[in-house]
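Q: Joint fold for the lines below.
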Amino acid sequence: MAETLLLEIGCEEIPAGFIAPALKELASLARSGLEDARLAHGTVRTLGTPRRLTLIVEGVAARQEDRIREMTGPAARVAFDVAGQPTQAAKGFAKSAGVAVEALERVTTPKGEYLLARVDEKGAAATDVLPARLADWITSLHFPKTMHWNGPARFARPVRWILALLGGRTLEFEAFGVASGHRTRGHRVLAPGWLPIPTPGAYETALQEAGVIVDPEARRARIREELARCAATLSGRVVEDDELIDEVANLVEWPEAVPGSFDVAYLKLPRPVIVTAMRAHQRYFAVEGKDGALLPHFIMIRSGRGPGVEEIRRGTQIVLRARLEDARFYWDNDLKGGLEAKLPLLRGIVWHERLGTVQDRSERLVVLVEDLARRLAPKSLVAAKRAALLCKADLASEMVRSGKEFASLQGIIGGEYAAASGESLEVAQAIREHYRPEGPSDPIPYTPEGKLVALADKIEATTGGLRAGLEVSGSQDPFGLRRAGNGIVRILVESEWRLDVLDAARFMEGVYDKAGIPPGEPDRFAEFWEQRAASALEDYGISSETAAAVLAVRPGDPVDLLARARAIEDIRRTSDFEGVLIGYRRAANILRSVPPGEISAGQPMAERADAFGERAEADLHLETKMARQAVETYLQGALPDYGAVLRHLLGLRPAIDRFFDAVMVMVDDPVARKRRLGLLEAVRQTFLRIADFSLLPSAPG
Amino acid sequence: MSAKAAAGAKSPRAVAAGAARSNAGVGSIGEPPRTFQETLLRLEQFWSDQGCALLQPYSSEVGAGTFNPATFFRVLGPEPWKAAYVEPSRRPKDGRYGENPNRLQLFYQYQVVLKPSPEDVLEVYLDSLRHLGIDLERHDVRFVEDDWESPTLGASGLGWEVWLDNQEITQFTYFQQTGGYELEPITAEITYGIERIACYLQGVDRIMDLQWSRDRTWADLFLQAEVEWCGFNFEHSDPTLLFELFEKFEREAYRLLKEGMVLPGYDYVVKCSHVFNLLDARGAIGVTERVASIARVRKLARAAAGAYLKQREAMGWPLLAGQAAPEPSTTRG
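A: Joint structure:
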């Protein structure tokens, strides 16, 4: 009869972030382990809290499936003597396989004929098979960090008990120096003793009575309810924070909300500072009023239930006050002399041994931002320069240097200090947002000044880093160069700002040269940039072939790259495009087969068609010339309509086709040959204004 | 003494939280202690009953009880060890001239080291809180991941901050490494922040208002010292002298360790570390220099740990005598 399997690893408190991945791994170990053990089963699910990782498998078969195992024995030639009687070798093999000698079969293999025994293997009882498997699963779990506590075993935290049941039977084994049993433990305080579990079905209810909600999803749901209930009593609403809910759900076994308050005087601190003080270490939820302004309240989730709300509130308020008091101490100290007074301190902070101090870096940012502003947003020049000068000043502030939770607010803190030091709104906002985007889901800066400083910050970081020899390889991005590169693309594309990043990089190389920073390996930035741009284009849904094709031509300007790539993607699968590609490839192949010296585009052509051997040649000449003129006209526009450009190229198809139908290129007459090669080269050059179309494979079929 | 601090010192004491309740938890001995010194006495009694050797503080300035040889050295090697002691701990950078209610440049740790770590160590620890009169059912106790590391000692471990109503009252660590040496058996280190706990037990919000003895508050005894030491740490210390001392102490430590003077040599390692902390508080150490100086102290600590292991091995690990080799214990869950 099928039974439910219950396995619980009882631990000392496992770090919250380890729990979900470990449960996922446990489920997958169970699935593959049960299959390997030939044990049929139903649903596999996992539950867990900081003190327990639990696996429940329903409908586990009582026995393994039977099977016939084939065993290969000695070679047939040694298994029988001349009289055809089985030798000692055959008898021995039969015995070891547990079958009669007569039952042995022969099998032909590439190496010759061998004996074969078919062994009828009865499935063993699940209760016999499972213990070793379970021990194996739980000792195979991985964690980001493990420890010793007793002998060589490693786990996230010490394992203190193991509960293992198949139906009503205990599965006995040992792991981590702990013998499995039929007992668990309840909440540390509410029900600290041993709690016997008679059957898997009784597990969740028994724990619930012992103060433990063992299902993480149920704890999350309860936290939401508790937060809503509590916020209502504070006449406010909880500041949405799903990430925090997930974390808190894995910090407690029985969530219950306790509201608290802090002195309104602290509300004069910037909101991010207050929210960080509540969130980072304390994991309190912030509460805001209907108008969206923070209220001097918070909600903390305790682990437990019943009396003590007053005691807990008192404690949680004291600790928050200490943190806010720290913030106020830093805030007041840092503001002495304003943000600008921090600038000289940047000289004491080394950015990179080859690239100098943070002050050196700030000076370069000012130079670069000026260049960028002139090209992209001249009206923002003054504010952007000021912001670039000040944007790193908060690295010298107590708030960021403290290494406490507020260090994560770099940039934001600088913006707040700038505002409090009397800098303009634009300058403060640019500083606040200049680290953006910090990841794929983080927005780019909102203001032009912010965008300029963010761009400069990232271009300086990547060009400088690559010049100094920093590596970007594999999945590692220790210096954030890849992230910065992606940021450059996103800021330019989402702002529709036209900038040739390779131009800006060359500008920076000049700045580094002037500062006496030793040159790095050539072309490292260009390579890095093409990888970033290719990956960004793919993120925008462009195929890798199209990305490669457009990157082969003018790769520095992401807006232009994307426009060209999208136009090509739009028409790539049309039959006209396929047709023109065939002609284009034919031209390119011919050109490739000829020594480069023989080719030069723009061979003199007589204006009158009858000067040509073939009418088709004259047509192509004229059409190419017109197409080229049209393309060039479009390319001079701010952002060319590449769809229209491509239509002009497609328009060449009939002329190209007629040309190849009617004209021989590689004729003996050197003048005609040279002229026709020149014409094909002119066609190729016209296409190459947009992309390297030879990198586009033709449609399958 | 500032007027504010003086006023604080004379403010009426809050009544101990929950002192009058009858249904205290398991192992509780009823009412919480009313003074700081009683709090200490309770911890001393509890851990004495657990079989710990009660030791006294180290006689040199340290940043934490971990620096005391009773932890730094004793966690090394196979010898078992159970000890508990108070450690006055100096963190020059953390001082706030007595103005922040929770931050001091000198505070007291109560340090317990248990080697090998007992299986029920967390339950025993919770019992120690009950012994302090904390009714755990009326509070939120939590073990929050905190991997501890001392870059200067080359020591690290995994464990938790213990939170009582979100206040960190204890650092609990399973030592994994000290002086760069992997440890076996593993020591459990329990470090109580006594001021924090006492504030809680006495129902006061500021350390300065703690009742130390029946008739003296923390402010009566230490406020002036706190203000003065902050003045020294942040303003009046002499960086030139301190840099000089750092160099000299470092040389002396190496010389002594080389001559087999393990404990005297280690004393100078500890002095180096403290001088570094003073320089750091003074803002006299640049970022790169800071990293380099920490590495220098760590190298010293490693040398001391190595010398200690060599010495104990040569002595035949004397504390193993009369002890069966510790076997991994097995319990049925």
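Q: Anything notable?
A: The radius of gyration of chain B is 21 Å. Residues 1-28, 326-333 of chain B have pLDDT under 50 and may be disordered.
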